[in-house]
Amino acid sequence: MPRHAPASIEFRSVTKRYGTVTAVDDVSFTIEPGTLVTLLGPSGCGKTTTLRLIAGLEIASAGEILIGGRDVTTQAAADRNVSMVFQSYALFPHMSVLDNVAYGPKVQGLGRARAHALALEKLELVGLSGLGNRSPSELSGGQQQRVAVARALVLEPEVLLFDEPLSNLDAKLRRRVRDDIRDLQQRLNLTVAYVTHDQEEALAVSDRIIVMSNARIAQSGTPRELYEEPASVFVADFIGNANLLPGDLLREEGDRAVIQVGALTIDLPRRGASRGPVTVAVRPDAIRLHGTQPSSPAIQAQVAKAAYLGGHVEYTVGSALGELFAVDRTDRTPMPVGAPVWISFADRDVTVVPR
Amino acid sequence: MAPAAKAWLVAAWAGYVLAPWYLADPLSALGSGGGLWLGLTRAPWLLPVGLALVAATWPLARGLDRTRAARWLVAAGMGGLAVLWLQGFAVGLSGWGLGLASLLGAPGPAQGGMGLGAAMTATSLLMLFCAGLAGLGWCRGDAFVTSSIGLVVALVGLFVLFPVLTILGSAAGTPGGGASPALFVSRLADPSIWGLGCLAGNGTCGVAWNTLFLAILVGLGTTLLGLAFALIATRTAFRYKKALRLLSLLPIITPPFVIGLALILLFGRSGAVSALLFDVFGVPRSRWIYGLPGILIAQLLAFTPIAFLVLIGVVQGISPSLEEASQTLRARGWVTFATITFPLLRPGLANAFLLGFVESMADFGNPLVLGGNYEVLSTKIFFAIVGASQDQGRAAVLATILLAFTLGAFWVQHAWLGKRSYTTVTGKGDSGLAPPLPRRVAWLCYATAIPWALFTFAVYAIILVGSFVKAMGRDYTPTFEHYLTGFRIEQTPQGLFFSGSAWNSLFVTLKVAVLSAPFTAAIGLLTAYLLTRQTFAGRRAFEFGTMVSFAVPGTVVGISYILAFNVPPVEITGTGLILIICFVFRNMPVAVRSGIASLSQIDKSLDEASHTLGARSFTTVWRVIVPLLRPALVAALVYSFVRAMTAVSAVIFLVSAEYNMATTYIVGRVEAGEFGLAIAYSTALVAVMLVGILLIQLLVGERRLGRRTALAAAPAPALASS
Ligand SMILES: Nc1ncnc2c1ncn2[C@@H]1O[C@H](COP(=O)(O)OP(=O)(O)OP(=O)(O)O)[C@@H](O)[C@H]1O
Ligand SMILES: [Mg+2]
C-alpha cells in the first residue's frame, strides 16, 4: 500500500442537527497537514459529533467538509481515508489482537499474509509484538488502547481521529500514553484530531486547540494563545480557571490600556477594548498574597479557605471584588483562615477579556 | 452506476426478455415466452414494463453523472413496479379486473400468474429503485441498507399486509365480485356468532363468546400454573427442579393437537382411564372430554410452558436487593412477598395472561380434535372454507373477528404493559440473594405444579406407550405395527423403497422446515439489524409491519393466503413455495425480537470501527455482526424449524395432495380414527425435532467471545405454538 501523505481537514460552515437538537452549529476551521489539533470543551458541546463528521459516521446537515482538498461531505465512512480510535476502543471481541489489527487490510482485499505482515509491523510500532494471539479481553486497559491505535494506524490513513482515548486509563498511565501518542504523531507525521475535555491533556499534546461551547467554536489557537489571550470569558474560565474581575478602562494608550481594578491600577495590552467597564482575567498564579500591607497599592482581603497541596498552597480569599482563587508557590506554610491579606497582581497572566 | 446496480439491470432485462414471463400453466391463453415477445405479440399491456427498463438503462447509455443517474433509477424503478402491479390486477385470470370490465367491455384479455421472468424483473426493478435512492444520499448513500429496507418492506407488504387486507376486502365481498358494506354488517351481526342463548338457558352461545370464554380460562390457568412453576424453579430448593423444567418444556416441541389426542386416548369413550373406571367402579363411559373441558385441559397443557418462560424471566429479573431492602425494613417473608415481589410480578402476569389468551384463540388443532359441539372461531373458519357451504365471505368475516380479538389483545399489551416494565436488572452486578418463598406460597405452588407435572408425564407416557401397543384402552398387545405402517422401508431391486404411508409427508415437512428456517433467520436478523443500527424515515411503521404477523392467528393466515394467492398476479397456492413463504413470515417476528435483543448488547462502536477501517455495511454485517449474533441465530433457526414441524392451523389450508405436511397428515389420521398411527408418527416427529435442534446447535456453533466475563445470553424468545 502506498504511504499516504498527511492531509488537511477543512470545515466550511458545517451544521449537524438531530431533529430539533443542533449538535454542531455553523462551524468552520482548518487543520493543517501533519498537526495535532485538539477539540476541547465541556460535556455536550459537540466534540464527538464534530469528530464523527470528519470520520463520515455522521453526514452533515449543511456545509462542506474537505479532506486533503477533496470534498467528502457526502462520502461514506468506508470510502474516506480516515481512521478512528474509539473511547471504548471497540475491539472486536471475537477476533484475536492480530486479527483485529489485520481487519482493515483484509477487508481492503489484501491477502491474509500481507495483512498479517502489516498488522505485525504496527503492533511492533506500539510496542505490543508478541501479544498478537491473545484475545482483547486478555490485555490490560493500556494495552487494549494501544491495540486500538495500531488498528487505526494500519491503513496509514490521511487523518487519524481520537475520541477521548485516555478516559479509561488511570492518571499515571494517562500521562504516559498521551506522550506516546504525541510521539507517534510526530514520528509518522500524521494529521490528528483529538477530542478531550481535560484541558491539561489538551495543552500538553496539541499544536493547536479548538475550544467549543454550545455547538460553536469559542476560540481556536495555539495552547499559548488560548491561555494568555483568551478571546472570551468562557475560554478564560474554561482554560486555567481564571478569576474574572470587573475593571474600569481609564485611558487608551495606543495598543495598551490603563485599567482600574479595585484599588489597583494596571497597565495591560488593550486587545481592542475601549473606555468604560471591562472584564479582567487573572490567573490564580498571578495573584500575589501579602501577609502584611505592602508599600505599593493592594486590595484588602481575608483568607476563607487554605489547602496545602505539597508543592503549593491553594487559597480562597474574600475581598471587595468577590471571592478569588489564588495559588501560592513561594510560601509553603498556609496562612490561617480569617487572617487579613493584601493582594497584588503579577506582571503576566493578567489580561483584558473582550466582551 | 455501481457494479451491483449494473448487475441488477442485466437481471431485469434477462427477466423481461429471456425468462418465461408466466407460470408454466397449460391452461394459459397466452402461451409461454419472454415478456418482451409476448408484449409485442399478444399481451401489449406488458410493453410499459419494457419502457421502464429502457429508462433505467438510459443513464448508463448516456453516461450521466451520479445524482442524475440516481434520479433516473428511482423514477424507472418506481414506475416499473407500479406498472407491473397495476397490469397484474387490471388483466385478471378471466378478463378485466379492477372494475375495468364495465368501462371497457367484458370479458377483455386474460393472463395467468406471474412466473420466473416477472419475478426477476420485479425484484430487479426494486433493487434498481433502492440503488437510486442510495445514489440520492438516502441512508448515507449505503446501497446495502436501502436495498435491505426495500426488500423487507416489499416482502412484508406482499406476504403479510396484502393477504390481511384481502381478507377485509372479501369480508364485504359479494359472490359476484363486488363489495357491499351492508352485506358485511349483516354477516357480522349473525346470531350464530354473537348469540347469547346459553345464558338464557336455551340453546348455545355464539362462537365469538365461546372463543372468548375459552381464551380467558386458558389465559388464567396457564398464568397460574406458569407462575407456580417459575417460583418453584427459581425460589425453592425443590430437588427435582431439572426434571420439572424439562417436563414443562417438552410441550414446546410437541405438535399441540398431540396432547388433545393423548387426552382422547386417556379419557375418551374407549380411553385407558375410562376403561379402568368402568371396570373397577362401574362409572359409565361418556363423551365428557369432547367439548369445553377437553379443549381447556389440552390447551392448559400445551400453553403453560409459554407462561412459564415469560414468568421465569420476570421472576429472575426482580433484583434480589429490593427484597433484601424490604427485609431489612423488618418486613417478614410473607409481607415482603405480598408487598414487593408480587406487585413487581404483575406486569409479567398480565403479559403471560395475554399470551395464553392469544394462543388459545389461535389454536386450531385441539378444538378440531376435541371440540365436539363446542365451536370456536378457528375451527368455524376452517369449516366455512372446506365444509359443504364453501362460503368464503363468511370465513373472511369470522377471520376478521378473530383478528380483531388478537390484535386487540396485543394492542392492550403494547399500550398498557409497554410503559410498565418493572424489570429491575440493571447490568450492574447484583450481589443480593433472593429470599426463599414463604411457606404458604411454596406449598400452594407445589400443590398446583406437581399434580400438573404428573399429568403431563402421564400424557407423554401414553403417547409413547400408545405407539407401541395395538389399541389403547382395548388391546395392549405390544406391536411395531403402527411404526411399520408409517415408516416401512422395503429393499427392492431398484434400491430402497419408502413404502410407509408417512414418508411422503415427513419428507415434505423436513424439506419445508429446513428451507424455511434459514430464510426466517436471515430476514428476521436483517430486519433486527435495520431496526437497531439504522435510522430512516418511517422506522416505527416498518417495525410495526414486521411484527404484525405475530398477532395474526394461523387460521387467519391460512385463509388470507388462499384468498390472496389463489389468483393471479401472484398465484402460488398448491405449491411447496407457499408453505415455505407462510412459515418464513409467520415466524419472522421471533427472529426479529431475538436479533434485537442480541444486537442491543453489542456496542455500536464496533460497527463504526469497522466502517472507519474501510468496510462497507455488508462486510461489517458479515464479519463483525453475524459472528457475534450466533445465539440469536440459533434461537431463530430452532424456533422456525420447530414451528414448521409442529404448526397445523395455517398449513391445513395450504397443503395439497402433492405437498402434504406431517401435522395435517396426522390430523387426518385422527379424524379417521387411526390413533395408533397418529401417535406413532407424533413420537417420531418429536424425535426428529430433537435431532434437528442438536444439529443446528452443532452447525452454527458457539460464539467465540474470549471474554473474561461472558455476555449474558440473549433471552430465549417465548416459543409459541399454534
Ligand atoms: N444521535 C443523537 N440524537 C440526538 N441528539 C444527539 C445525538 N448525538 C448527539 N446529540 C446531542 O448533540 C449534542 C452534542 O453531542 P456530542 O456527543 O457531540 O457531545 P460531546 O461534546 O462529545 O460531549 P461529551 O464530552 O459528553 O462526550 C448533545 O447535546 C447531544 O445530546
Ligand atoms: Mg463525546
Automatic annotation (TrEMBL), chain A:
It comes from the Bacteria. PROSITE patterns: ABC_TRANSPORTER_1, ABC_TRANSPORTER_2. Residues 9-239 form the ABC transporter domain. Keywords: ATP-binding, Nucleotide-binding, Transport. GO terms for molecular function: ATP binding; ATP hydrolysis activity; transmembrane transporter activity. InterPro entries: AAA+_ATPase, ABC_SmlMolc_Importer, ABC_transporter-like_ATP-bd, ABC_transporter-like_CS, Mo/tungstate-bd_C_term_dom, P-loop_NTPase, Transp-assoc_OB_typ2. One of its GO terms (cellular component) is ATP-binding cassette (ABC) transporter complex. Gene3D superfamilies: 2.40.50.100, P-loop containing nucleotide triphosphate hydrolases (3.40.50.300). One of its GO terms (biological process) is quaternary ammonium group transport. It holds the Pfam family ABC_tran. The keyword Protein transport does not apply. PANTHER family: SPERMIDINE/PUTRESCINE IMPORT ATP-BINDING PROTEIN POTA, SPERMIDINE_PUTRESCINE IMPORT ATP-BINDING PROTEIN POTA. Belongs to the ABC transporter superfamily. This is ABC transporter ATP-binding protein.
From TrEMBL, chain B:
Keywords: Cell membrane, Membrane, Transmembrane, Transmembrane helix, Transport. The keyword Lyase does not apply. Its main location: membrane. It is a multi-pass membrane protein. InterPro entries: MetI-like (IPR000515), MetI-like_sf (IPR035906). CDD domains: TM_PBP2 (cd06261). One of its GO terms (cellular component) is plasma membrane. It comes from the Bacteria. It is found in: Cell membrane. Residues 208-413, 506-696 form the ABC transmembrane type-1 domain. The chain crosses the membrane at residues 7-23, 43-61, 73-96, 116-139, 151-172, 212-234, 246-268, 288-314, 334-358, 395-412, 443-469, 506-532, 544-564, 570-588, 632-655, 675-700. Pfam families: BPD_transp_1. Belongs to the binding-protein-dependent transport system permease family. This is Iron ABC transporter permease. GO terms for biological process: transmembrane transport.
